[in-house]
Amino acid sequence: MSLSEQADIRDPLMIAEGWMNEGRDLAIATVVETWGSAPRPTGSHLVIDAEGNFEGSVSGGCVEGAVIAEAIEVIESGKPRMLEFGVADETAWRVGLSCGGKIRVYLERLG
Question: Where is the secretion signal located (predicted)?
């Protein structure tokens, strides 16, 4: 089963609620804009805890590693940020969007 298929089975917002009830520090990443061949639609979520555990998907596996690393910093600082990945961006080849497209992800701390 692919990462995107697994993300469709489990609701990351429900997972986030359970993790918050456990007292975990969390961040949520939300797809706010896509263009071209971005594999996840706007409104898709990735929930990340301070240890780097995650549920959901913002790109079907293309940029999750980079988003998780940024999320840990957002959890620590409490400051939200907008992330952008795409073929015009110098990180495109590193994170795997070489097929084209663009994705903007808003990242914020929960709780």
Answer: none
pTM for this prediction: 0.80
Question: What tokens were used for 51?
Answer: 């240890």
Domain region containing 14: 3-110
Tens digit of pLDDT for each residue in 62-105? 789 999 999 999 999 999 999 998 765 555 555 555 556 788 99
Q: What order do you get walking across the sheet with 81-86 strand by strand?
A: 54-56, 45-49, 26-35, 102-110, 81-86
Q: Which of 21, 32, 44, 17 is nearest to 80 (CA)?
A: 32
Indicate the number of domains in the chain: 1
Max intra-chain CA distance, the chain? 40
69: Cβ–Cβ under 8 A, 6 or more apart, which residues? none
Rounded to whole angstroms, the Cα distance separating 71 from 80 reads 9
Residues 6+ apart with CB under 8 A from 43: 30, 31
